[in-house]
């Protein structure tokens, strides 16, 4: 009962905050619970991030597959400083994602704060909740900085 209440609350929050992603995700999970398909929840939890990253990567690679990005476009991207900054951003992002995954494995209860923080970011900062690993990576960096500052 508590799970359904949380999901309905997230649906309302998503509707009020105009976040179709949160609304849709909560609706799908509510349908899974109401149709007694809870046995699939562990699989969704275990493989959901992988599937989400797969579809995100597919969407990002479509311009290459469709031929909209040509070799000359790739060369042009690195002829200016913005292309090199983008390369550094991609590399740092991938590194932070790996730190986030490690952090979540070591301290899984952090996911509660990350999920609530993502909802707050979507509702009040007009963010997009596609980066739980990135959020975990940033959390890992913040925790490390605080530990260094406090001396623990």
Please, could you describe this protein's structure?
The protein has 152 residues and is mostly helical. It has two domains: 1-36; 70-152, no CATH class. It is built from seven helices and no strands. It has helices at residues 2-16, 20-34, 41-66, 71-77, 81-106, 110-125, 132-150. Helix 1 runs antiparallel to helix 2. The radius of gyration is 19 Å and the shape is globular.
Largest sheet, if any?
Answer: none
Low-confidence stretches: none
Roughly how much helix do the residues carry, as a percent range? over 70%
Beta-strand content: under 5%
Cα Rg: 19 Å
Q: Which structural class is indicated by helix and strand composition?
A: mainly alpha
Distance between termini? 41 Å
Shape: globular
Care to count the β-strands? 0
Average of per-residue pLDDT values: 86
How many structurally independent domains? 2
Element order: H for helix, E for strand = HHHHHHH
Please give a handful of descriptors for the protein shown.
152 residues; 2 domains; 7 helices
Q: TL;DR?
A:
This protein is mainly alpha-helical. Helix content is 82%, strand content 0%.
Please describe the topology of this protein.
Blueprint: H1 2-16, H2 20-34, H3 41-66, H4 71-77, H5 81-106, H6 110-125, H7 132-150
Helix pairs in contact: 1-2, 5-7, 6-7
């Amino acid at each position: 009962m508590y799970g359904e209440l949380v999901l309905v609350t997230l649906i309302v929050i998503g509707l009020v905050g105009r976040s179709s992603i949160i609304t849709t995700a909560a609706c799908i999970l509510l349908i899974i619970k109401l149709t007694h398909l809870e046995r699939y929840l562990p699989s969704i939890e275990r493989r959901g991030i992988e599937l989400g990253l797969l579809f995100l990567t597919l969407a990002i690679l479509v311009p290459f597959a469709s031929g909209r990005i040509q070799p000359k476009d790739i060369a042009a991207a690195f002829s200016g400083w913005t292309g090199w900054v983008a390369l550094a951003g991609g590399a740092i992002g991938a590194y932070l994602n790996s730190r986030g995954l490690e952090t979540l494995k070591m301290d899984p209860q952090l996911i509660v704060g990350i999920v609530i923080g993502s909802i707050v970011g979507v509702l009040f900062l007009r963010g997009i909740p596609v980066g739980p690993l990135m959020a975990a990576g940033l959390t890992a960096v913040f925790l490390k900085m605080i530990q260094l500052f406090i001396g623990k």
